[in-house]
């Protein structure tokens, strides 16, 4: 078997709110709560397990999601409709903009806990087939 990421735990103040927020933006389903976790599974089988922890114990993390052009359009429309601040860069220097890195589109936003979320349509370092 090749090595694959199976799941990761995302700390939150309210696991239901956080799971619902991200699932809504990405067009995913919120899974059934089990133990302290509310899972959201991505299309490649990686599960994001949201866990409620005390607010002071949350270490802000970064999560990037690769989407198709169509999925990006839908997710970006949801970000804008929800009036979630977004940026073209991870440092927030370009508010209200998207980027076009690696020939695609990308945008950064934060979830209700301050985690940095990113949606992109091309992986970092992507080159069109045949381009040199």
Structural overview:
This protein is α/β, with parallel strands linked by helices. It folds into two domains: 1-53, Signal recognition particle alu RNA binding heterodimer, srp9/1, CATH 3.30.720.120; 60-132, 2,3-Dihydroxybiphenyl 1,2-Dioxygenase, domain 1 (Roll). It contains two helices and seven strands. It has a four-stranded mixed beta sheet with strand order 4-7-6-5, with helices on one face. The longest helix is centred in the middle third of the chain and has 13 residues, at 69-81. It is globular. It starts with 6 loop residues before the first strand and ends in a 12-residue tail after the last strand.
Mean pLDDT across the residues is 95
Major sheet: size, sense and barrel closure? 4 strands, mixed
Q: Unreliable segments (pLDDT under 50, ≥5 consecutive)?
A: none
Return Rg in Å: 15 Å
As a percent range, the share of strand residues is 25-35%
The topology string of helices and strands comes to EHEEEHEEE
Oligomer: single chain
Distance between the termini: 33 Å
* CATH fold description of the largest domain: 2,3-Dihydroxybiphenyl 1,2-Dioxygenase, domain 1
Strand order of the largest sheet: 4-7-6-5
For the secondary structure, the number of strands is: 7
Q: What's the number of domains?
A: 2
Q: What would CATH call the class of the largest domain?
A: Alpha Beta
Quickly give the CATH architecture of the largest domain.
Answer: Roll
Category by helix and strand content? alpha/beta
- CATH superfamily heading of the largest domain: 2,3-Dihydroxybiphenyl 1,2-Dioxygenase, domain 1
Percent of residues in helices comes to: 10-25%
Domain VOC: 4-122
Cofactor: Fe(2+)
Family: Belongs to the extradiol ring-cleavage dioxygenase family.
Keywords: Aromatic hydrocarbons catabolism, Dioxygenase, Iron, Metal-binding, Oxidoreductase
